[in-house]
Design a protein that fits this description.
With 166 residues, the protein is mostly helical. The chain contains six helices and two strands, in the order ααααααββ. Strand 1 and strand 2 form a beta hairpin.
C-alpha cells in the first residue's frame, strides 16, 4: 500500500483530492461522490440523532448543546467507531481510498474518513454558514429565515436555510 501524506481535516476539497491522486475529471468526481454518499448516509443514520451518547461527557448533560452537533462536541471514541464501521462496510471502490487513509497515529486513525466526516459535519451545521455578499447589490437581498422540515422517521424538525433562487 502506498504511503500518502495525510491532509489536515480542515484542508480544502482540492487538497484532499490531490492527496488521493484524484483530479477534476468525471471519473474522479464519481469516485469522490461515492465516498461522500457513504459517509453522508452514515452521518444521517447515526449522528443526526437526539441520542446524546455520541457527545463528549461534558456536553451530553448540557441542555444548551443542541442538534446539529458541532464536531468539537462529538466523542472521539464515537468518531473512531464511525470510521471503523464505514471502512468495514464500504463498497469496494471507496474502500480502496479509505485504505489509503490508514494511519498508525491513533489521533488520526484514518485521515480520509476523518476528513470526510468532518466536512459532512461542517456542511450540515447551518450555524457555520456566514453570508458574505460579493457586491453591494447582493447585500440588499433579504435572507430567508430557516424553514423547519419534519422528518418521516419521527425526528424533531430540522432547521435549514432555503436557497434563494434569482
Amino acid at each position: 500500500m502506498p504511503i500518502i501524506t495525510p491532509v489536515r481535516q480542515s484542508a480544502s476539497k482540492e487538497e484532499f483530492l490531490k492527496a488521493l491522486g484524484l483530479n477534476g475529471n468525471t471519473a474522479d468526481k464519481a469516485r469522490f461522490q461515492q465516498m461522500w454518499e457513504e459517509v453522508t448516509g452514515f452521518w444521517v443514520k447515526n449522528f443526526e440523532t437526539t441520542k446524546r451518547h455520541i457527545l463528549k461527557p461534558e456536553y451530553a448533560a448540557s441542555p444548551g448543546v443542541q442538534r446539529p452537533y458541532k464536531w468539537a462536541h462529538l466523542d472521539p471514541a464515537v468518531i473512531d467507531n464511525a470510521i471503523t464501521t464505514i471502512w468495514k462496510d464500504g463498497r469496494p471502490l471507496p474502500r480502496m481510498y479509505y485504505d489509503l487513509g490508514a494511519h498508525d497515529d491513533r489521533r488520526i486513525y484514518n485521515w480520509v474518513l476523518k476528513w470526510l466526516l468532518w466536512h459532512v459535519c461542517r456542511y450540515r451545521d447551518w450555524r457555520n454558514r456566514k453570508s458574505k455578499p460579493s457586491t453591494a447589490s447582493d447585500s440588499q437581498v433579504p435572507q430567508s429565515p430557516p424553514t423547519p422540515v419534519a422528518d418521516s422517521d419521527g425526528m424533531p424538525p430540522k432547521t435549514y436555510w432555503e436557497t434563494v433562487m434569482n
